[in-house]
Design brief:
about 100 residues; 3 helices; single chain; mainly alpha
């Protein structure tokens, strides 16, 4: 009897394309409470969270390992830990602009 491989039928290009197209929802802001005129000047405020998208990647060339780690964390949502790191290191190419050292 042949062992069944979980990854024998996965096309890496389709997997990477699907992960890249995952929807990114903008952060929501909390609305300030409405006060009635008889409250005597009650104080209220709105709180705004982190403005970076869920797909934020460090963009400087000296932050390459951090960017790879974040991508591995994302791939671990659908793949085992060791497979996710292997796929990222083998298939994801980070290209940096030589003049600015920023991710292209």
């Amino acid at each position: 009897m042949n062992p069944i491989s979980h990854f024998s039928n996965i096309n890496r290009r389709i997997l990477l394309s699907t992960l890249a197209l995952l929807p990114v929802f903008p952060p929501r802001t909390a609305a300030a409470q409405q006060t009635s005129p008889g409250d005597g000047g009650a104080f209220s405020f709105a709180v705004y969270g982190d403005s970076r998208s869920m797909m934020y990647l460090p963009y400087r060339s000296d932050q390459r390992e951090e960017a790879i780690k974040l991508m591995v964390d994302m791939f671990e949502l659908v793949l085992p830990e060791k497979v996710a790191e292997e796929v990222v290191r083998r298939d994801v190419k980070l290209i940096y602009d030589p003049s600015t050292d920023e991710l292209i």
